[in-house]
Amino acid sequence: MTHNDLLNIAGEYGSPVYVYDADKIISQYNRLTGAFSNVSNLRLNYAVKALSNISILKLLKTLGSCLDTVSIQEVKLGIIAGFEPHRIIYTPNGVSLEEIEEVAKLGVQINIDNLSILEQFGSKHPSIPVCIRINPHVMAGGNSNISVGHIDSKFGISIHQIPHLLRIVDNTKMRVNGIHMHTGSDILDIEVFLYAAEILFDTAKQFKDLEFVDFGSGFKVPYKPGDIETNIEELGEKLSARFNEFCTDYGKELTLAFEPGKFLVSEAGSFLAKVNVVKQTTSTVFAGIDSGFNHLIRPMFYNSYHQIENISNPEGRERFYSVVGYICETDTFGNNRRIAEINEGDILRFKNSGAYCFTMTSNYNSRYRPAEVLWYNGKAQLIRKRETFDDLLRNQVEADLEVFSEVAKTDKKKRNIEVATT
């Protein structure tokens, strides 16, 4: 997908707009399966929360992917996209027992991450197999908000609570068919990941009817030229050998599962926005775009880095710009970035915008959510319409202000009488 292709998309569908390159998603999927080709049974559960557009889910289904979901709504999206329930795993956090039971009725694999719900679910539904999410107390992730395996995390059942966990399983006679962990996103050191894997293997030995071991994901992708990333090929070689060894000791061929989200779709995504104004101050040159953290919140929320290109003038002389949005609060996408000279009306491209970008958009400042476009087989296809003013009003219900007005008049009259009598 060239700069001209992107400019044509911005011209046809307007800005801001999200664009996803199907070829990159396919190559990332194939890269991951290739890295673990020495494992007999490999299952990739795409993390729907990263990018939940139905067309993206259908694309991944054609590749053989399964799904990782965290809400009943994501489960239903997966089923609408054509995934069979047994090819979906549901890993919620802090949801009600009622939602978990509703998902279980659909035939989806349940993954439970706390002792209270485990005991309640096992007592009521001992015949429904469940996976158990373990917290290995291993810190991983590039930001505290995405490090979920450490000791203070709300996610998973602590390895120090294993005796309690085993008592619940024994007392309820429930069936545990999977063991799961997720240490966090942006894994840099594969040795840390392998260390956590050993903790999961030790835990898995204590369950006799396992069908799969799920290692979560969190593989880091590069955000700029020369950036470091998870060495997926080295991890594949080392973890595959260790997993095959574990299966031999366990006496059964198990399935090795992962839940990649960012790894599959992050680099495939581009966010395009138009420059509304170039503003020179005493110390900074601002490029103000027709968007804000209502459309791309990650730089403000996670301090994430998105490489910014001026695709309208890619060969222009580089200057320093701070790229900012139009929200009524600070929404800086990048400070003092070297970008080819920007003029008002130019289109800027934010790279690595496929994961956790559109899914975290909002209508803050009553702005519309942008359109989404899929670049597939050399053609652009609209896969989500830009919102309109009608969408802002769709679920609003107008109050009967005449009732409020009459109440106010009555109260005012009552107060006037009280004042007059005193």
Offer a concise description of the structure.
InterPro entries: Ala_racemase/Decarboxylase_C, DAP_deCOOHase_LysA, De-COase2_C, De-COase2_N, De-COase2_pyr-phos_BS, Orn/DAP/Arg_de-COase, PLP-binding_barrel. Keywords: Amino-acid biosynthesis, Decarboxylase, Lyase, Lysine biosynthesis, Pyridoxal phosphate. The protein is α/β, with parallel strands linked by helices and 422 residues long.
Keywords:
13 helices; TIM Barrel; 9-stranded mixed β-sheet; Lyase, Ornithine Decarboxylase, Chain A, domain 1; alpha/beta; 422 residues; 8-stranded parallel beta barrel; 22% strand; 18 strands; 34% helix; 2 domains
Describe this structure in words.
With 422 residues, this protein is α/β, with parallel strands linked by helices. The chain folds into 2 domains: 1-22 and 265-422, Lyase, Ornithine Decarboxylase, Chain A, domain 1, CATH 2.40.37; 23-264, Alanine racemase (TIM Barrel). Helices cover 34% and strands 22% of the residues. It has 13 helices and 18 strands. The chain has helices at residues 3-13, 22-35, 54-63, 72-80, 97-105, 115-124, 162-172, 190-204, 232-250, 262-265, 298-301, 389-393, 401-421; strands at residues 17-21, 42-47, 66-69, 88-90, 109-112, 130-135, 157-158, 176-180, 212-214, 255-258, 269-280, 285-289, 308-310, 318-324, 332-340, 347-350, 371-376, 379-384. Strands 1, 11, 12, 13, 14, 15, 16, 17 and 18 form a 9-stranded mixed β-sheet that branches. It has an 8-stranded parallel beta barrel with strand order 2-3-4-5-6-8-9-10, surrounded by 5 helices. α8 runs parallel beside α9. The longest helix has 21 residues, at 401-421. The chain is globular, with a radius of gyration of 25 Å. The termini are far apart. The model is unreliable at 141-150 (pLDDT under 50).
